[in-house]
Records
---
Amino acid sequence: MMKSSTRPAAALFLALALACHPKGAPDQEIRDTLSKAATALEAGDASGATAILDDKYQGPEGMNKAGTAFYLAQVLKQGKVGVHITDQDIGVNGEDAFEKIHVILTQSGSGLLPDGSKKIYILHWAKRGDHWRVVDIQDFTDRTEGN
């Protein structure tokens, strides 16, 4: 008898847990979008990697979407790039989201990328139609304690 009385409670708990992270939840959509961009970069596809950037994107040092694609194409000419995301923290507020990521970038033949491959970025995402796009990236590598 005890087991049957706990089943409804367990079912309710499971339903609540699934409701907290439904399929298509914004944080999962953002994780999936970033993963696709990292896969494209690792495949040597600079334009695929920058497809997540909004047309009004503003990156580090004022780089726009076209400038970022050009920069990545130049990096990819030097060898295959590896993207290893070690930590992600996403906060969603309606049509905006902020994501803090820790990433390690590698390049074939040279190991770690020369400009310091262990990076911490804050990405500002915005919902554009059915897709999340990055509108701004800030490099927080040197601003955080205990990297």
Note: The radius of gyration is 19 Å.
---
Amino acid sequence: MPALQPQPEIITLEQYNTLPENIRAEVFQGILYNMASPSQVHQDISRELLYALTDYIKKKNGSCKAYAAPFDVVLNHRPLTVVQPDLMVICDKNKLDGKRCNGAPDFIIEIVSPGNASDDYIKKLYYYQNHGVREYWIVDPNRLLVTVNYFEGNRIVVQYPFDAAVKVNIYDDLFIDFKVIGQILHS
């Protein structure tokens, strides 16, 4: 007869809040998962995307705010689900409490790391779609693809190569030029 496997400890938001600041972790269904530090390419892409989002919002005098990881998003309290998307845009300021976002951001971008691609393509896609995120991009520097998941109305999924200008669907006139971002990979 096989030995019983120990069950992971289910944590609460109060326990999560006691983690040291230098610990990067996410929580799915109450189970804590440690996160690895992002690579240089990951950081370069994240920076360029954050610039594009922030610049657009400022030029439009928009009320939304763009944030980069690490910044906690509590998607669910019971069981606890806390994520740290690579990038996000939050338009409802009532979701912000000075420490985190409580509820789904409007727009999330995850940049795929080689060791955890299934997290972005499967697990996070499921959680983001089912907890009210309006639009979710998966930026994959290894495959040179951007997968756009737009959840409002009928779900739309479109893939773009790294030489395309990709429309941010939550805005009428924002396109992000991935030619510029693709050049980062070759510099």
Note: The chain has a mean pLDDT of 93.
